[in-house]
Amino acid sequence: MGSLDAPISAENGSVHAAGHGKSPLIDVAARAAPADSTPDFDTSKRRRSSVLPLEVGTRVMCRWRDSKYHPVKVIERRRVHGSGPNDYEYYVHYTEFNRRLDEWVKLDQLDLDSVEAVVDEKVEEKGATGLKMTRHQKRKIDETHVEGHEELDAASLREHEEFTKVKNIATIELGRYEIETWYFSPFPPEYNDCLKLFFCEFCLNFMKRKEQLQRHMKKCDLKHPPGDEIYRSGTLSMFEVDGKKNKVYGQNLCYLAKLFLDHKTLYYDVDLFLFYVLCECDDRGCHMVGYFSKEKHSEESYNLACILTLPPYQRKGYGKFLIAFSYELSKKEGKVGTPERPLSDLGLLSYRGYWTRVLLDILKKHKGNISIKELSDMTAIKAEDILTTLQSLELIQYRKGQHVICADPKVLDRHLKAAGRGGLEVDVCKLIWTPYKEQS
Amino acid sequence: MSRLSFRPRPLDIHKKLPIVKSIKDFDDDEAPASTRNSQLLRIVPEVEHEAHVQHVPSKKAASEIPTPQFVYVDTYERDYSCTFAQPTSYLRARGARAEIGEFVEYDLDNEDEDWFSEFSEEMKSLTPEMFESLLFKLEVLDHKARERAGLITPTVGSPIPVLLRLETAMESLQAQAVKYTIIQSVYDYWKEKRQRWQKPVLRRLQPPPPVNDTNPYNVFRPREKAHRLHTRRMQRRENNVQSFEKLRQVRRNLDQAKSLLEALIKREEKKREVIESEVTLQRMQMKYKHETEFLEDNLALSGFTPFSSKFVSSEEEFFDSDDVMTNRLPRSRSTAVQNLHPYDTNLPVVPAVSSKQELKRRYVPHGWPHKLDPLEPVLLFTKPLLPDKLAMAGILPPDSITKNGVPAQPYKFRGRIGRGGRIIFDRWNSLVQTPIDCGNSYYMPPKPRPSTCN
Fold first, then answer.
1. How far apart (Å, rounded) are the C-alpha atoms in residues B427 and B437?
2. With a CB-CB cutoff of 8 Å, which residues 408-427 of chain A face chain B?
3. Residue of A55, A103, A143, A340 marked active site
4. Which residues on A lie below 8 Å from B58 (Cβ)?
5. Are A90 and A104 in contact (CB under 8 A)?
6. Contact assessment for residue A305 and residue A293, using Cβ atoms and an 8 Å cutoff
7. Three-class SS of residue A280?
8. pLDDT digit string (tens) for B297-344?
9. Which portions of this protein are annotated as coiled-coil regions (chain B) (predicted)?
């Protein structure tokens, strides 16, 4: 039915004509045609057949892991190996959620009736697209202004998202866990062709096949991170690894961490960093729970560069432990510290909670006047962070020509409750550590 | 609400801020519901739970926290053995793997495995471990060959050539107890792969991307140490003889400036000391004057003639009499005393009127009149001079000067220290034992109000 071809391509020409050859389109039309011999065939069928394969940028509803349909935007597509020329899978961004949930989906997860070619359609059939757009933009704005991404201007943010738009590794195996990854990580080009990586949980070498990992495990001589243990409490241990002395380990750790951190950069070498790796220990070895990295010498008084709790250990208070630990190190150094910006959404949340807990605990007990500087000296928290925390809780107010701190016990308790539990405590007397000194 | 229109002044982090323990202190003078906190408290009693939920700041974000997606690996317990025993002391790092030596850092990758499975169909004697070890050693040997040839590039720029030749590899790998043919096949395979990759296969030996490379897929650049030198400021501080000399010159200049300033400070200090001395001197003289008036008043009442020579002698002389003439010169009680000398050589008596001594005198008002010589005339503002002291200072009374030429004077002189520290020699009628008023001294007869003399 050659007659069908013309109207379809005319209707959607602006969407489909460019880019790839006409053959799939004709093919679809040809296949769809026999089913709809009657002139008034179902319009949705017509739509359905006409949109395939979906263009990058298309908005559509997609079935997520919660079995509900959510709006998505197609970021990328690729042919499925060993199937028909028209079979693609699509990399989609759930516009309601963080980029970490972007994933490759099969065609049957998409509701093709909801396809919108947003690129040139101003009239939204769903009416929700506008909302979706604003939500999407709002997320950007939130990231830009609230989460401290201000040093990423719009252009570099776009560039960043373009370069990292598609996750390369979908899952990793690390010790006992097989974990779904969140973000793109710039593994060496030799790893471009695989979706799953097998990490040795001790030296963090990564391999493409399980057999390679098993062979590696027979010879791997590590049972804990290759650094000094500086803290041990129960089964919890903290190791300090020098990026210069253990370059490959540091790089492996960065590759791994990037899979879960959006705005981490692997631009520079690991020489100038120390890695503090938190482990749970048992008779198989010390299993990495999370880590934070720290510049050996920070001109901006950063006491933490990157922080990550691996997904299987999340929501158990380890992140709060890592943050508290970074401030304990700053206290030992006699310096105030602050995390390097930008903070991720989860990072900001944890830090806000930590600052709130620490500061409000002091305010609750403190008698008499107190300056921000004194609070900073007591906690090693940078004065700016104290100010933003107290101001966002509206505890600093300007009355009768001067600033006062409001410390009504009831208000404080309420904020403290909202800030959540403190997580695992850092027992300072178990920290055996001297600040890093350059070896000459 | 006009209050809110004031722009608060910026907060000083060093300033102590009052802590207000009750929110009601705020609300009394505020419009209702002005802050979230006050709202918070008001709502609480009514609907405690709801209020709480509403004001959890993290609530919106919390909904976005993803449920971590992971599953357990069922082969884990087989893959990882239970051979770890935690020592009681904290674990210490050992050297890196590359330094330990024997560890085979290379893990076979997919194409190695594919090649191996094909190859081992013909040659059964090669194990994957041996294959791994051979590849690792070839990599290290090649790296060493490039090192010797001076071809190690700090950063990756152009393709890195293979330098290791089969013969060299053979020699080094003889100890491996592997058949020649196997080594040859592995070498050929490795060389082909290595040339295809255009970089070392072992990740540790791959050079980092150059600093100015902007490809985001390339990672772990060296930190821009070399880059920093390109800024103008760093260039100016080049480490050569010229800048060394420049810095030396700067140092010399600074040293000179420093010594100049130090001298200046010294001078100014001296100046201040001089002023202070003058002030002290004046004060003492004033005090002394009043003291004398006081004494005189007392004496006038009691009818005694004041001033035994012993009493008015200086404190130093008190000491001296105790110490049996150890030192005639005034002791350095204070800088003030010392500084007086250049101005007035006969002043050793003046510092006697220290406040301490003044106190002493006041405390013994009943004792001292008895020490006075009843024949001594009442001389205002005066102290008797000690002839031997005068002689030491080279001052002679007028009568002794003319002694040798002219016969004895019809009258004698009697010295005293007058106001302002002058030495005054009064002519002295030795017959009646009274001074002869010549009108050139400031001596005034003991009148009720001697203040007129000023």
1. 8
2. 408-411, 414, 417-420
3. A340
4. 349, 352-353, 418-420
5. yes
6. yes
7. strand
8. 776 665 544 444 444 444 444 444 444 444 444 444 444 444 444 444
9. 247-287
CA angle (A222, A226, A232) in 5-degree steps: 100
Residue type, B11: L
**Catalytic residue at A340?**
yes
Tell which residue, B44, B37, B29, has the closest CA to residue A396: B37
Residue B140, Cβ neighbours under 10 Å: how many? 19
Which letter, b or e, does each residue of A255-273 get, where b requires 16 or more Cβ atoms within 10 Å of its Cβ?
bbbbbbbbbbebebbbbbb
The set of residues, in sequence order, having a beta carbon less than 8 Å from that of A186 and lying 6+ positions away, is A255, A258, A266, B216, B217, B218, B219
- Domain boundary assignment for chain A: 58-116, 343-425
Task: Report the distance separating Cα B432 and Cα B426, nearest Å.
Answer: 14
Return d(Cα B274, Cα B430) in angstroms, integer. Answer: 43
DSSP state at residue A142: I
ipTM of the complex: 0.71
Burial of A38 from C-beta contacts in 10 A (0-12 / 13-18 / 19+): exposed
Residue B298 main-chain phi, psi, to 5 deg: -60, -45
A–B CB contacts, 8 A cutoff, strictly below = 250
- Nearest-5° Cα angle at A310, A430 to A337: 55
pLDDT tens-digit series, residues B393-439:
777 666 555 545 555 555 567 777 777 777 777 777 666 666 665 54
Lowest mean pLDDT among A203-217, A409-423, B289-303: B289-303
Domain topology for A58-116:
SH3 type barrels. (2.30.30)
Which of B72, B71, B38 has its CA nearest to residue B55?
A: B38
d(CA A386, CA A327): 14
Strand order in the sheet with A396-399: A396-399, A402-406, B19-20
**How does pLDDT run across B246-263, given as a tens digit for each residue?**
999 999 999 999 999 999
- Is the full-model pTM beyond 0.80? no
Measured distance CA(A248)–CA(A369) in Å, rounded: 51
The region that residue A304 occupies, defined by phi over 0 for left and psi between -120 and 50 for alpha, beta otherwise, is beta
Residues recorded for chain B: 454
Residue from B231, B228, B227 nearest B212 by CA: B227
To test the contact with chain A by mutation, choose from B40, B72, B91 the residue with the greatest count of A C-beta atoms within 10 A, namely B91
In CATH, A343-425 is 3.20.20.70: no
Strand partners, A174: A177, A199
Q: Which of residues 214-243 of B touch A (CB under 8 A)?
A: 216-223
Query: Could you give the CA distance from residue A82 to residue A200 in angstroms, rounded to a whole number?
Result: 32
Cβ pair A176:B84 closer than 8 A: no
The four Cα atoms B365, B369, B371, B376 give a dihedral, to 10 degrees, of: 140
Across B365-392, b (16+ Cβ under 10 Å) vs e yields eeebbeebeeeebbbbbbbbbbeebbee
> Angle of helix B241-302 relative to helix B355-363, nearest 10 degrees?
20
DSSP A98: -
Contacts of B104 (CB under 8 A, 6+ apart): A219, B129, B132, B133, B136
B30-35 contacts, C-beta under 8 A, 24 or more apart: B30/B3, B31/B1, B34/B4, B35/A394, B35/A397
Please check whether residue A213 is in contact with residue A307, taking contact to mean a CB–CB distance below 8 angstroms: no
CB A398 to CB B40 under 8 A?
Answer: no
State the residue for tokens 């250990």: A313
